[in-house]
Design a protein that fits this description.
With 287 residues, the chain is of the alpha/beta class. The chain contains eleven helices and five strands; from the N terminus they run αααβαααβαβααβαβα. Helix 1 packs across helix 4 and helix 1 packs antiparallel against helix 11.
Length: 287
């Protein structure tokens, strides 16, 4: 398990570099993979109680990728904790996607709790799993689900939000990747979700809002989550940047999904690495 901010940021850098490599091989949902890369790195490589050698253990934290199109960033984090070789992820993407592909599928990847891709479905399933854990008197494990801000337009999200409060699911942690964009443009211009923090508060949730591309904040908020046996579900409203870290992709709806060429790849790698070493100093290169 990674503990220091430097280690986590380095791990997030690696995930971004790997995402870009995948993106030279196949169209992936790169914009929303990059926006949630920091949170996913901290979740999989620091926060979750999860044993890759025993993925069906009763005592595991559960993860449901409600924005199921962010499967690349999920698979790469699973590879980072040893679920499979990262080279397998590359090889299978280079072929036809194989076990990893555009959306998370538990028929082919045993580390995927629930197959997702149809937006608005993961959150209700996560709510059901959290209720089941509570019925089984499991007071330790949590259920984490990651949604998009565009996904908040799905009515099923709010049905689950109501039920989570009714059944006092303090073991449920919903994470919203608020990058401001969905597939066809800005969330505010499509349907619009208004003030999400206020909405969840009115629904009765414990609401925490922070910069979801700031590793210190992410870690701090994971460290301070209410206990799994508390009685209110928690939502982490993560303010992020779509395409985070790659300037030509940032805040560009067209980079919701896509493929890049070799020149774009090399240019992006250089920017990401330069920025990382600018922050952490030249010695970090030798790590
Ligand atoms: C029910 C449903 N409708 C439409 C789609 C097509 N779709 C895939 S991703 C996406 C945009 C999602 O936006 P958001 O939730 O903000 O995700 P992010 O920007 O983080 O990728 C859409 C509309 C879908 N997968 N499921």
């Amino acid at each position: 398990m990674l503990k220091k901010i430097y280690e986590l940021e380095k791990a997030a850098l690696n995930i971004r570099l790997q995402l870009l490599k995948l993106c030279t091989m196949q169209t992936i949902h790169i914009g929303g993979d990059l926006s949630i890369a920091d949170v996913m790195t901290a979740l999989w490589q620091y926060q979750m109680k999860y044993d890759k050698d025993n993925p069906k253990s009763e005592n595991r934290d559960r993860f449901v990728l409600s924005k199921g199109h962010a499967s690349a960033v999920t698979s790469l984090n699973q590879a980072a904790i040893g679920c499979f070789e990262v080279d397998d992820v590359f090889k299978e993407y280079a072929a036809d996607g194989g076990r990893f592909s555009m959306h998370s599928c538990n028929l082919v990847n045993p580390y995927v709790e629930v197959s997702t891709g149809s937006l608005g479905h993961g959150m209700p399933v996560a709510c059901g799993i959290a209720a089941a854990l509570k019925l089984k008197k499991n007071t330790i494990n949590r259920v984490y689900t990651v949604m998009g801000d565009g996904e908040q337009e799905e009515g099923s999200v709010w049905e689950a939000a109501m039920n989570s409060v009714k059944y006092q699911l303090g073991n449920l942690v919903a994470i919203v990747d608020c990058n401001g964009f969905q597939a066809d443009g800005a969330v505010s211009e499509i349907s619009g979700i208004g003030n999400l923090a206020e909405k969840y508060q009115v629904f009765g949730w414990n609401v925490i809002e922070f910069d979801g591309n700031d590793m210190s904040k992410i870690k701090e908020n994971f460290d301070n989550l209410p206990k799994a046996d508390s009685d209110k579900p928690t939502v982490l409203i993560c303010k992020t940047v779509k395409g985070k870290g790659v300037p030509f992709m940032e805040n560009q709806a067209k980079w919701h999904a896509g493929k890049i060429n070799e020149e774009q790849y090399l240019q992006s790698v250089k920017i990401l690495e330069d920025n990382f070493y600018l922050k952490w100093g030249k010695n970090a290169r030798e790590d």
